[in-house]
């Protein structure tokens, strides 16, 4: 028996239809994406053209203004500022329902008060050393002394010291400047003054060296700081330089205290702490306590008075 294939109905293949639909969908998406990109490019181009037109317009306006200014140089003088005509215009309140808050008055700055205080102390020739004597405070003290001495060579200085020590080079430098200025340098020590602090305290003018009741002095054999020692070791002059400075400091103590050199040498052999009474006994200081020494910082004329007016009760006999 033979089969008649023509009589069998043809069934469509669904796979072909699905492939065609996917292809059409992909083509549609690509077309939409391309149109979107073209639209974005067109918008960017229009925006650039608009910006160029605005820039060109601004340049033209600026050129026109410059040209008008050149043609009318007195135009600015003739045109008055509306803010100057109305120095106190009424400000419009954008929120009428809200009450206008008054602007707070500016409070006096604390920095200005401190600057005024330092100004008065500086021109009153009151100098302070309240830390270890390093390069920065030593430079500041020396510059202040030299500047004020050039301003008036008849006035004295008051040097307040609370120094636990410091560099030997800096201490000798400040001491030399204290002897260089023409005005007397009165030294007043508070707390612990050790090493170079004690050396500067005793280096004030005679009969004008004071240590507070609770103050202490510590003297010892002078030595260099590690920083200074490292530099001089590299230059090969460490031993000679230290020996010369130690001799200078020792001779200064002996000369100013007028004590037996053996006593001073024995005191400097080790760290020795002295009470005010002991320091006065070996003439490192002249007075104990600061009673009668008043500082009038309310009147600047006090700073510029005569040398006789600068005398303080502590030094009056």
Automatic annotation (TrEMBL):
Residues 1-108 are annotated as: Disordered. Gene3D superfamilies: 2-enoyl-CoA Hydratase, Chain A, domain 1 (3.90.226.10). GO terms for molecular function: ATP-dependent peptidase activity; ATPase binding; serine-type endopeptidase activity. Residues 37-71, 81-96 have a biased composition (Acidic residues). GO terms for biological process: protein quality control for misfolded or incompletely synthesized proteins. Residues 19-36, 97-108 have a biased composition (Basic and acidic residues). GO terms for cellular component: endopeptidase Clp complex; plastid. Pfam families: CLP_protease. Keywords: Chloroplast, Hydrolase, Plastid, Protease, Serine protease. Belongs to the peptidase S14 family. This is ATP-dependent Clp protease proteolytic subunit. The lineage of its organism: Eukaryota, Viridiplantae, Streptophyta, Embryophyta, Tracheophyta.
């Amino acid at each position: 028996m033979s089969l008649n294939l023509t009589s069998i109905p043809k069934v469509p293949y669904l796979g072909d239809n699905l492939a065609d639909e996917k292809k059409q969908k992909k083509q549609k998406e690509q077309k939409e994406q391309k149109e979107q990109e073209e639209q974005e490019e067109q918008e960017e181009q229009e925006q650039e053209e608009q910006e160029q037109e605005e820039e060109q317009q601004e340049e033209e306006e600026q050129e026109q203004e410059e040209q008008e200014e050149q043609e009318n140089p007195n135009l600015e003088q003739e045109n008055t500022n509306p803010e100057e005509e109305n120095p106190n215009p009424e400000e419009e309140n954008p929120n009428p329902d809200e009450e206008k808050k008054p602007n707070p008055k500016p409070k006096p700055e604390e920095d200005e008060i401190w600057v005024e205080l330092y100004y008065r102390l500086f021109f009153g020739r009151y100098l302070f050393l309240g830390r270890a004597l390093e390069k920065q405070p030593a430079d500041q003290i020396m510059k202040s002394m030299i500047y004020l001495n050039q301003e008036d060579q008849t006035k004295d200085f008051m040097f307040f010291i609370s120094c636990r020590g410091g560099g030997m080079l800096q201490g000798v430098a400040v001491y030399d400047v204290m002897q260089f200025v023409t005005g007397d340098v009165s030294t007043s020590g508070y707390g612990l003054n050790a090493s170079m602090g004690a050396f500067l305290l005793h280096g004030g003018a005679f009969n004008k060296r004071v240590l507070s009741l609770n103050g202490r002095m510590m003297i010892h054999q002078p030595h260099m700081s590690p920083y200074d020692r490292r530099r001089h070791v590299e230059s090969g002059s460490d031993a000679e330089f230290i020996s010369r400075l130690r001799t200078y400091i020792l001779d200064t103590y002996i000369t100013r205290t007028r004590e037996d050199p053996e006593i001073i040498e024995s005191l400097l052999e080790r760290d020795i702490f002295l009470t005010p009474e002991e320091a006065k006994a070996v003439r490192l200081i002249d007075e104990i306590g600061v009673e009668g020494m008043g500082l009038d910082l309310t009147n600047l004329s006090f700073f510029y008075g005569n040398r006789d007016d600068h005398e303080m009760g502590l030094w009056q006999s």
